[in-house]
Amino acid sequence: MLPLAQGLLKFSHCQRDVFCSRVPPLCPICGQSVVASWRLEEAPVHVPCPFVNGHREKCSFLVKPTRGEFLGDYDGDSDLHVGITDTSGVVYHYNETGVRGDTLGWEQCVSVPLVPPDNYALIDQWDGYLTEHAASEQWLPHRYSERDHNCCSFALRFINRILSLLEKPPLSTTQFTERFVLPRTRRASKYLSVCREVSQHGFYAVHREDR
């Protein structure tokens, strides 16, 4: 599915938005030429992929499947794993082996930026804060619990530490998930659903409102 997802297109015809990997000469809904009746707003556009290379995202919260990748492997119910990047794209994350700093393996993620790009003071100190957090004894391997002391615990406690430095109130797991994670993962899920439909049927069409 990966090559398809990298080239997902959308065009409009017969009051529908049609998603495909390449624009067909005839509309798969009505059978008429898609080019002859196009207006500017109906012309094909590239659908941005919601997944990024996490190693190119600095000072960010990352989400990826625990096993495999979103494109081709994720079924919507598989376990997810999270981490935090430093300013060089090294991903710090916590699992049953303790804290790891990965330079590979997070090439297809959902990313949530944690620092405004113009907050130079915080960015300058970010790596120090992150390595100090990762070195804490609370993240030793034997303390790992899949249920209540896991990768999410590691990430959220670091985020709340940064919030305290900024004199902002801490976030609960629910608050952080609802405000920052769910909007992006929902968009990613919709994207994957469209990719699966296009992969199976050659196109995917939805009704659109009149413009």
Estimate the helix proportion, in percent. Answer: 25-40%
Strand/helix succession: HEEEEHEEEEHHHE
- What is the averaged pLDDT score? 88
Order of strands, widest sheet? 7-6-5-4-8
Q: What is the gyration radius calculated from CA atoms?
A: 21 Å
When the domains are counted, the total is 2
Through-space gap between termini: 32 Å
Q: How many runs of DSSP E, i.e. beta strands?
A: 9
Short structural summary:
The chain is α+β, with helices and mostly antiparallel strands and 211 residues long. The chain has five helices and nine strands, in the order αββββαββββαααβ.
What do these coordinates show?
This protein has two domains: 2-48 and 190-207, no CATH class; 54-171, no CATH class. Mean pLDDT is 88; it is low at 1-5. The strands form two sheets. It has a five-stranded antiparallel beta sheet with strand order 7-6-5-4-8. It has a four-stranded antiparallel beta sheet with strand order 3-1-2-9. With 211 residues, it is an alpha+beta fold. The protein is built from five helices and nine strands; from the N terminus they run αββββαββββαααβ.
List the keywords.
single chain; about 210 residues; alpha+beta; 2 domains; 4-stranded antiparallel β-sheet; elongated; disordered N terminus
Give the arrangement of secondary structure elements.
Elements (H helix, E strand, L loop, with lengths): L1 H5 L2 E5 L2 E5 L24 E2 L13 E6 L4 H4 L6 E6 L5 E5 L2 E5 L7 E4 L6 H15 L16 H15 L7 H29 L2 E4 L4
Antiparallel strand pairs: 1-2, 1-3, 2-9, 4-5, 4-8, 5-6, 6-7
